[in-house]
Amino acid sequence: MQKFKLPAYFCLQKLDQETVEHLIHIHQTLFEQSRETIRRELIDEIDWSHRLICIKGFRGVGKTTFLLNLVEEKYADDKTCLYVNLNNFYFTKRKIFNFADEFYKKGGKVLILDQIHKYPDWSEELRACYDHLPDLKIVFTASPVLRVIEGNENLKNIAKVYHLEGLSFREYLNFHGKFQFRRYKLDEILTNHQQIAQEITEHVKPLAYFQEYLQTGFYPYFLNNKSFYYETLLKHVNLALELDVTYLNQLELKYLPKLRKLLQITASEVPFSPNISKVSNEVETSRATIMNYLRYLKNARLINLLFPNGSEDQSKKPDLIYMHNTNLLLAVEPNNNSNRNLRTTFFYNQVGYQHRIKSSDKADFKINDKYHFVIGGKYTEPETEGVYAAADMIEAGKGNKIPLWLFGFLY
Questions:
Q1: Sequence-ordered list of residues with C-beta below 8 angstroms from that of 158, at least 6 positions apart, any chain
Q2: Residue range 327-339: mean pLDDT, rounded
Q3: Which terminus of the chain has a smaller tally of CB atoms within 10 A, N or C?
Q4: Which residues pair with residue 321 across a beta bridge?
Q5: Mean pLDDT for all residues in the chain
Q6: How far is CA 338 from the centre of its chain?
Q7: How many CB atoms lie within 10 A of CB 136?
Q8: Integer distance in angstroms from the first to the last C-alpha of the chain?
Q9: Do residues 186 and 167 make contact, with C-beta atoms less than 8 angstroms apart?
């Protein structure tokens, strides 16, 4: 458990003093609030020497908390760091570059901007900061839908983008049990899973936490009010569809019901091989539009697409569609809760975050163009040579049979 502490701060003198005092008050209030937080280890993986760093993530995944932890850990004693949420109406009349320029001239060195996608012309403004304020570092958060470097001539060669994913099973376990289990590389798990599982199960029974994690463990909403976990998640799903997917992809709001219907159909049938013609008839739109909508939902971290032979050509039909994680699946379509569905969704989610996943001609998934995995229950066996089994309801495996829960220790 971490508690936010009030960091040292500096005087911005006459930089629109009343407004700045208000921004500082907001900053201080955030840090004075005593709350439980989960430290995300992405903070250790980022190369902080870069001058322009973007943190992407789904709504409510913890981007703001991540930034506040960053300030506390790296800039608590640095009086030249400022956190600003661009939701503030001050930035309807003030350009980011002008604000950053005055901040820089008063000695500012680190500007942390939350929710950059709320600001028009954000790309041009950040480029101006990069070009004209050479000693200023900017860290900003964004919707996963926002094209920060893809097709963005302003930032594609200068911004570094990182994704803040939901909690891994390891992170969830560490928080609830006050453990400090480390991450393991995929190759470590494949070659040494028996010893790793033994070391972990000496301290905890992972299966005692696993089902709860599948239901309400991926997003940190449980820290505030677990009773309203699904209500909070559904609120963020709808906001992602209404604002992120439609606004950032320049879709008219009149198409929102079609997006919502497509997501519901997907959740009710996943994992499934989509008949695009049938789906387009149900949603009452064209095949091409369905393909675009699937891409939007994937970019928004709402679904995962499994392509044949690892193809990333998203104009082609995917072999299978999965929900992005089990919590989303159970929130959108709680009746589609078969063990197989939950197991394959969990595996894709935990392994796919940092590894390439494609269809396999002899198992459920093929990882990194090399490893084939079949996903199942405790009696699942790797029946074909060169295939691994990720088996649920076992604490430890043997040979090519590995506990499913252990793949939640990859990040």
A1: 51, 52, 127, 130
A2: 96
A3: N
A4: 272, 305
A5: 90
A6: 24
A7: 19
A8: 19
A9: no
- Tokens for 356, please give them: 């390439």
Query: pLDDT tens digits, residue range 343-381?
Result: 999 999 999 999 999 999 899 999 999 999 999 999 999
DSSP per residue over 376-405, as a string?
E-TT----STTEEEEESS-S--BTTEEEGG
Q: How far is it, in rounded angstroms, from Cα 217 to Cα 167?
A: 7
Question: Which of 138, 58, 142, 46 lies closest to 101, judged by CA?
Answer: 138
Token pair recorded at residue 295: 């891409």
> Would you call 58 helix, strand, or coil by DSSP?
coil
Reading the block at residue 115, the tokens are 């929710």
153, 205 contact by CB (below 8 A): no
pLDDT of residue 78: 73
pLDDT at 89: 82
CA distances from 219 to 84, 164, 198, 232, 406 (A): 24, 11, 28, 10, 19
- The SS3 of residue 141 is strand
Contact 317, 291 (CB under 8 A): yes
